[in-house]
Amino acid sequence: MKLISNSFDLKLTTCCLFFVLSISQTFAQFFVQRLPQDKIKFAEEAYMVLTTGDTIRGKLGTVSFIDGFVNKINIRVNGERFSANLEDIISFAVIPGQGSGYEDMALLPVLKNLKNEAFIEVLPKDGWVIYEKIRLPGKPERYQLSQLLNPGFDSKIKVFVHPEGESTGYTKVSGITLEGLRDNQYFVSVLGEPVQVITDLQYRKRALERIFNFCPDMREKKFKWKEFPEDVFFHFQKCL
């Protein structure tokens, strides 16, 4: 079995740096573009972290689905195939391949202020789209792999794709599609707690109570749905 460290060597490539520095300062921060699970099959390279502590990295083989969600993953390593079911997987990641419709690179948010060096530092530079296993709200106990939308600044708050979230738009910059804060609901986990559903209205009315209640610096803030990514990054930097 080919094992690798859970933390990959993240190298800043010239193209990524050029993309970041070419963005207008008028754009706000965004979450990563979502990669629908039915497009995962177009990926070539993948890794999965198992409940045993092992990490398997190689070429993506077959991916099985139940009700539209990943249920079983096969990865080929040096000609040998390794399979894992959902219950044995902690996280899973792919580098989108041609045919996925994933625009150019899985680069994180554009910067509101290009002098924000701290934000540049946390951006993943190697193109992985990450899915983590989450427990869905409610009963009975159910789990699914859901795409993490804020990798790089997710140590305290994790924002995931909600399967019923409806996109309300997107932003295109130099031919690259950026989808952030354009869905009407997300799964959100705070400090490792089970995910909760957060909608536009809930965020505006109860963001402090439900997400940022451990951050005194945000107690006087008026929360706006379009500023969710910036709020999460501020919390990552300044709170706890």
Description:
- By secondary structure, the protein is of the alpha+beta class.
- 15% of the residues lie in helices and 30% in strands.
- It contains 4 helices and 12 strands, in the order αβββββαβββββββαα.
- It has helices at residues 14-21, 117-122, 200-210, 228-238, and strands at 45-50, 55-66, 69-77, 80-85, 89-94, 129-135, 143-147, 157-161, 171-173, 176-178, 185-190, 196-199.
- The protein has a 7-stranded antiparallel sheet with strand order 4-3-2-1-5-6-7, with no helix packed on it. It has a 3-stranded antiparallel sheet with strand order 8-11-12.
- A hairpin with a 7-residue loop joins strand 6 and strand 7 (143-147).
- The N and C termini lie far apart (39 Å).
- Residues 1-28 and 104-115 have low confidence and may be disordered.
Topology summary:
Elements: H1 14-21, E1 45-50, E2 55-66, E3 69-77, E4 80-85, E5 89-94, H2 117-122, E6 129-135, E7 143-147, E8 157-161, E9 171-173, E10 176-178, E11 185-190, E12 196-199, H3 200-210, H4 228-238
Antiparallel strand pairs: 1-2, 1-5, 2-3, 3-4, 5-6, 6-7, 8-11, 9-10, 11-12
- How much of the polypeptide forms β-strand, as a percent range? 25-35%
Count every helix, treating DSSP H or I runs of 4 or more residues as helices: 4
Query: Total number of β-strand segments?
Result: 12
- Uncertain segments of ≥5 residues (pLDDT<50)? 1-28, 104-115
- Average pLDDT works out at 79
Work out the radius of gyration: 18 Å
End-to-end C-alpha gap: 39 Å
Order of helices and strands: HEEEEEHEEEEEEEHH
Helix content: 10-25%
Question: Going across the major beta sheet, what is the strand order?
Answer: 4-3-2-1-5-6-7
Q: Judging from the principal axes of the Cα atoms, what is the shape?
A: globular
- Sheet with the most strands, sense and barrel status: 7 strands, antiparallel
Decide which structural class fits the backbone. alpha+beta
